[in-house]
UniProtKB/TrEMBL annotation:
SMART domains reported for this sequence: MUTSac (SM00534), MUTSd (SM00533)
PROSITE patterns for this protein: DNA_MISMATCH_REPAIR_2 (PS00486)
Alphabetical keyword list: ATP-binding, DNA damage, DNA repair, DNA-binding, Nucleotide-binding
Organism: Parvularcula dongshanensis
GO cellular component terms attached to this protein's record: cytosol
Family: Belongs to the DNA mismatch repair MutS family.
InterPro entries: DNA_mismatch_repair_MutS, DNA_mismatch_repair_MutS-lik_N, DNA_mismatch_repair_MutS/MSH, DNA_mismatch_repair_MutS_C, DNA_mismatch_repair_MutS_clamp, DNA_mismatch_repair_MutS_core, DNA_mismatch_repair_MutS_N, DNA_mismatch_repair_MutS_sf
Composition bias, Low complexity: 841-851
Name used for this protein in its record: DNA mismatch repair protein MutS
GO molecular function: ATP binding; ATP-dependent DNA damage sensor activity; damaged DNA binding; mismatched DNA binding
Entries under CDD domains matching the protein: ABC_MutS1
Keyword DNA damage attributed: yes
Length: 890
């Protein structure tokens, strides 16, 4: 570590005009280069932070803030994190929304010294760590993609490009400016690169509210011509025609993505697969609110448990988990592509042995994709090489498994071809070399050394045996030194700073410091309780060990670089293997799920069919207590001349929301390529899915509950098409009854007449059930309950026709509302029902049943009328009390 002070001496700095010391100048130049990122400035075994960076990091990491010298008469704040444990600190800073520029010493301090004893070690920023460019396992969720997205909005339209550094996949899709938010919701990026605008764009704010890290960048990064040049450079082509045709916005977005990676991945550029131009509409459009309301890939609390993904995930590998999350998060709209996926699930369903063997083999397989990305970016370690070795072996076994009597379908045949590459000559060599080169127990970092197996490199073995011989000689020296010094407790010890030394207690040191012993034992250090010595012989052996150790490490590093080079030369084939392994895992997992939960293969059609028999809610079903049975329900939205929309009524807790959502989830699963929880299913491709549940606050955005609901309803009314599926749960409940009812009424009419979509609507407004008389494609269904001895029994059965009454109070009683409150509520309800009169001028209620004319006689009042308490005997009063309590009930 070069200990040059960061700033000038106190005396110099105090003058305020002192020129910067070389180190200070170097620091500030790098600081400017780091821009808005925090600068991790490497000094020996620490990354140091200074000035505001230090204050911010010390606060965020909970580490001590110290100071180092002065600048302009002020102390320079400083804090540091040890290099060997930096990842945890980095993770914390990234999670807190910061980016970190890592500046390394890019020159050996010994080299720098050759330029003069005070020469400064060269330092450079080698990488800027941002949320979307992480590759370290410790910083990433193994089962979730880590997408980096870039958005370009040009006058003619917008585009979103995105990548996952661990797979090298590169996608771009054009989108209208208004649709960019939804597209990003489908991608679920860890970071979005946007054009910097004064005050921040609406999209930037929207993403900020959703907690998506946004990095605004200079407009020049989004230049489409530059983007085209960058793409050609990245793929080494003179034209992009071979990739398809890009819009200008598409080129701008891809260019910004590559440019941003150039800025952040300074040392090594990631390698990409050819960009995939996703056609607009190729995936089911699902906006962010729908995703959240259906809890597709994350539950309401942000965790996985409780989500659809969690309920259907039977994958056993990290790569499989990530692929399944992509399938569920972005269901397809192309029938042929869906069929291809279904075929893979069906094949594994039939081939039970192959499935069990595949899952077994994959569950121990390493995360090949992420290991490859680290090796590609120069951040790999010995364990990543071992991951390549082990994954190749798994790939060979999987290729064997797929050679079955029943020929696998298209996707699996393609996958098998990729896996068979693992058996090719080139891979056999690589596998053989990796197998011979690596030890069983491996360190994380190459510089830790000790990972190359004995017998692989004779020069390395020789260096190691020199080192080990010297160590053995040292071990033997101890006994001789004890005799000569006459100190039984004398020990030879080792420290990183001093190397080997002799240690005795302070009481025994006196004789060794005086002649004749002092001629052999040279004093090195005195501590409170011990004194340390060395000898000529020990120092020589120590130097020998250091030399041999350095040489061994250099040889190991050279071998590591060579092995990494061989892996990198085959990145494309290895990635293809990783993709095929993930596909096998997902398909086998979905087959296991289908078998375990009795899921069926849905028939996917081009029309607007929606016919589910015996459908179930995969998440609610999985969470029912032991012994409880989920009641399956049919849902038909398509029959000729009959309903395309169902209005679902029924008491609270009957299962309306469950019924609505299960059908939306069945559509998602079906188009993701999975089998579905039903006895049978026929589904015409859904282009957009909308789901809204009552009202939820968005106070952060300054919108009231009702306002949010109306903005969302407006969006659906404007966007739903005749191929969409709309699921609305209690829309309009966030405002006064008549307003809410009227809005729900008008919205239903619009969806029925103008959008003509398939839809399911749950409501507590019984008045709405009259709509089926005027809207030919709307039908009423209700979730049945039975009353038994005054209690409500939930049957969870969806039946034709509207519900007869509400049972709200009965449910309130079940929920444990105090008995007095329940009784009072019943009285109020009766009064309201008596008093309710439909306003004459609202045609809405024209068909409503006539209000109750005669008030019901009140038995309590009857008993109490005419009672004179003063004239009653205690016995009569007692009797009356009994009769009154009889009427009120227990
Ligand atoms: N088909 C079913 N089979 C078994 N249990 C069910 C079924 N549907 C719903 N349930 C159970 O009933 C509970 C309530 O269901 P749900 O929330 O769908 O009722 P709801 O009618 O929408 O109620 P509310 O009107 O109060 O919102 C669920 O949490 C689940 O435990």
């Amino acid at each position: 570590m070069d200990g040059a002070p960061l700033s000038g001496t106190d005396e110099e700095a105090g003058k305020g005009t002192t020129p910067l010391t070389p180190m200070m100048a170097q620091y500030h130049a790098l600081r400017r280069e780091a821009g808005s990122a925090l600068l991790f400035y490497r000094m020996g075994d620490f990354y140091e932070l200074f000035h505001e960076d230090a204050v911010l990091a010390a606060h965020c990491l909970g580490i001590t803030l110290t100071r180092r010298g002065q600048q302009g008469g002020e102390d320079v704040p400083m804090c540091g994190v040890p290099v060997h444990a930096y990842e945890g600190y980095l993770a914390k800073l990234i999670r807190a929304g910061h980016s970190v520029a890592v500046c390394e010493q890019t020159e050996d301090p010994a080299e720098a010294k050759k330029r003069g004893s005070k020469a400064l070690v060269r330092r450079e920023i080698v990488r800027v760590v941002t949320p979307g460019t992480l590759t370290e396992d410790t910083l990433l969720d193994a089962r979730a993609h880590n997408h980096l997205a870039a958005v370009a909005i040009l006058p003619g339209g917008g585009a979103v490009a995105h990548t996952d550094l661990s797979t090298g996949d590169l996608f771009v899709q054009d989108a209208e400016e208004e649709a960019v938010g939804d597209l990003l919701a489908a991608i679920g990026p860890a970071e979005v690169v946007l054009k910097q605008t004064d005050g921040g764009s609406a999209l930037e704010k929207q993403l900020g509210q959703r907690g998506v890290p946004v990095t605004p960048c200079h407009g020049s990064l989004f230049d489409s011509q530059r983007g085209e040049r960058r793409l050609k450079e990245a793929f080494g082509t003179s034209t992009l025609d071979g990739f398809g045709s890009f819009s200008r916005a598409g080129l701008a977005a891809l260019g910004a993505l590559l440019g941003y990676l150039d800025l952040t991945q300074v040392e090594e550029r990631p390698r990409f697969k050819p960009p995939i131009i996703a056609a607009p509409g190729s995936i089911m459009a699902i906006d962010q609110v729908t995703r959240a309301s259906l809890e597709l890939t994350a539950a309401r609390d942000g965790g996985r448990a409780g989500s659809l993904l969690h309920a259907v995930d039977r994958t056993v590998s990290a790569g499989g988990g990530r692929l399944l999350s992509r399938w569920i998060g972005a269901p397809l709209t192309d029938r042929a592509a869906i069929k291809d996926r279904q075929d893979t699930v069906e094949w594994f369903l039939g081939e039970r042995d192959a499935r069990a063997a595949a899952s077994d083999r994959l569950s121990g397989a390493p995360d090949l994709a992420r290991a490859l990305s680290r090796l590609e970016l120069g951040r790999g370690g010995p364990r990543d090489l071992a991951a390549v070795r082990d994954a190749l072996m798994a790939a060979r076994d999987l290729a064997d498994l797929l050679r079955s009597d029943a020929p696998p379908p298209k996707l699996l045949t393609e996958g098998a071809r990729r896996l068979e590459a693992a058996d090719s000559e080139g891979f056999s060599d690589l596998l053989g070399t990796l197998g011979a080169a690596l030890k069983a127990d491996l360190p994380l970092l190459p510089r830790d050394g000790g990972f190359i197996a004995e017998g692989f490199d004779p020069a390395l073995d020789e260096a190691r045996s020199l080192r080990d011989d010297a160590r053995r000689i040292i071990a033997r020296l101890e006994a001789g030194y004890r005799d000569r010094a006459g100190v039984k407790s004398l020990k030879i010890k080792h420290s990183r700073v001093l190397g080997y030394f002799i240690e005795v207690t302070a009481a025994n040191a006196g004789a060794m410091m005086a002649p004749p012993l002092s001629e052999e034992f040279r004093h090195r250090q005195t501590l409170a309780s011990a004194v340390r010595f060395t000898t000529h012989e020990l120092a020589e052996l120590d130097a020998k060990i250091v030399r041999a150790g350095d040489q061994a490490l250099a040889l190991e590093l050279a071998t590591f670089a060579r092995l990494t080079g061989s892996v990198k030369a085959r990145t494309d084939d290895l990635r293809a293997c990783a993709d095929a392994l993930a596909l096998c895992d997902v398909a086998a997992g979905l087959a296991t799920l289908a078998e375990e939960k009795n899921h069926v293969r849905p028939v996917i059609e081009e029309g607007v069919a929606f016919e589910i028999e015996g459908g179930r809610h995969p998440v609610v079903e999985a969470s029912l207590p032991a012994g409880a049975r989920f009641v399956p329900n049919d849902c038909r939205l398509d029959q000729e001349g009959e309903a395309r929309m169902l209005l679902v009524t029924g008491p609270n807790m009957a299962g309306k929301s469950t019924f609505l959502r299960q059908n939306a989830l069945i559509a998602v699963l079906a188009q993701a390529g999975a089998f579905v929880p039903a006895a049978s299913a026929r589904i015409g491709i859904v282009d957009r899915l909308f789901s809204r549940v009552g009202a939820s606050d968005d106070l952060a955005a300054g919108r009231s509950t009702f306002m949010v609901e109306m903005v969302e309803t407006a969006l659906i009314l404007n966007q739903a098409t005749d191929r969409s599926l709309v699921v609305l749960d209690e829309v309009g409940r966030g405002t006064a009854t008549f307003d809410g009812l009227s809005i729900a009424w008008a919205a239903l009419e619009h969806l029925h007449e103008a959008s003509r979509c398939r839809g399911l609507f749950a409501t507590h407004y019984h008045e709405l059930t009259k709509l089926s008389e005027t809207l030919p494609r709307l039908a009423n269904v209700s979730v049945a309950v039975r009353e038994w001895e005054g209690e409500v029994v939930f049957l969870h059965e969806v039946r034709e026709g509207p519900a007869d009454k509400s049972y709200g109070i009965a449910v309130a009683r079940l929920a444990g509302l105090p008995r007095g409150v329940v009784r009072r509520a019943e009285t109020v309800l009766r009064r309201l029902e008596r008093e309710r009169e439909a306003p004459e001028d609202l045609p809405l209620f024209a068909a409503a049943p006539a209000p109750h004319a005669e008030p019901e006689p009140d038995p309590l009042r009857g008993l109490l009328t005419g009672v004179d308490p003063d004239a009653m005997s205690p016995r009569e009063a007692h009797d009356l009390l009994y009769r009154l309590t009889d009427i009120v009930g227990p």
